[in-house]
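Hello Y.,

Per our agreement to keep a running log of every chain we model this quarter, I'm adding this entry. I've kept the format consistent with earlier entries: sequence first, then predicted structure.
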Amino acid sequence: MHDVPVVTQYASPELVFAIAYEGHDPGADPGWAVSGAASQEEYRTWSRHLCGMACLRMALLHRDGHAPTLFDLLAGARQYGGYIVEEDRTIKGLIYGPFAHYAQGVHGLAATVRPQLKMDELTGLLDGGRLVMASVAKGIRVPHEDPPRRGGHLVLVRGRTPEGDLVFNNPSGHTQVAREATLSADRFADFFAGRGIALDLRPRTPSSAADRTAPASR
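Predicted structure for the entry above:
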């Protein structure tokens, strides 16, 4: 079990409920500058897409004790092709392959893309000391409700309890319990899309080249 600090994709965790369920404008978050955004408009545009950057920041904080801001991480991931802005300004990402090369190349964090990841393989990675950025339905914050679909959101799975329940940090958790959550493997599977990124926290040397092959999205 890794004791990973919680990072939310929104600057003010207490506003997540209002943003997720009440239509609150994320750009009105008074703490937006903490994210590293250059402006409120940039924060408004990107904050809903930062679950992957929040997972990365959590992993780096746990490993190093410090980490770049969410928007510094975003800028780096975009340079590697981890996000694509379409002509109609639709944002596509996180794209797994380029993100993995960014994590390794810049931060020395080995990231292995798992486009097909069974639950027993996920638990095996956790038991082997890995963190896993898992693609789940965003409704996992309220696990008593069945999701209409699986995937589309990333959480950082950080270990298992002695009973085998999965423990994970949710960047869009609307309560403290939802942000630092524990869920049975069977119930987690109801939200899990069967794909993710395994993170190896053992020290690595950042590489000098970026191979941008094998894209996969969340």
